[in-house]
Hints:
Blueprint: H1 3-24, H2 28-48, H3 52-76, H4 89-111, H5 127-136, H6 139-164
Amino acid sequence: xxxxxxxxxxxxxxxxxxxxxxxxxxxxxxxxxxxxxxxxxxxxxxxxxxxxxxxxxxxxxxxxxxxxxxxxxxxxxxxxxxxxxxxxxxxxxxxxxxxxxxxxxxxxxxxxxxxxxxxxxxxxxxxxxxxxxxxxxxxxxxxxxxxxxxxxxxxxxxxxxxxxxxxxxxxxxxxxxx
Length: 178
C-alpha cells in the first residue's frame, strides 16, 4: 500500500466518521464538529485525487459556511437544558434503509461497466478552467442556488421562531378617561 492510497482510505474514513457524527449525535455542537470532520475528510479525498484547487476551495468556503451553520444551529435548536424528544424507531430504520439504497445505487452507477465512457471532458482541468465555467456557463444556476438557500434559511428561522413563541392572551385595549 502506497502513501497515496493510505491517505485516500484515511480521508474516506474521516469523511464517513464525521458524517455519522453529524447526523447521529444529539448535541448540536458535536453535530457541527462532526460536519467539520466530514468536510476535512472530503478535502483530503480531493487532495489524493489530484484536485488541489477544489480541496482548498472546500476548506476556505466551508470555514465561512460552518460559522454560519453554527449561528443558525444555535438559533434553531432548543436550549440544552430541555430534554430532547425521543426518536421514532421507524424513522431511524427508514432513514437507514433509504441511505443504504442510495449508497447501493451510487455504488452500482460508479462501478458499473462503461457507464460514463462517452463523457468528453477536458483532459487538463485547472483553476482557471473551473472559474471560467462557473462565471460563464453556470453563473445563473450558481446565483439561483445561493438565493434559494438564503430564502430557505430565512423561512426556517421564521418557522422556528413562530413555533417557539408562547401563546399569550391578547392584551386588553387601554381605557380612555373621560
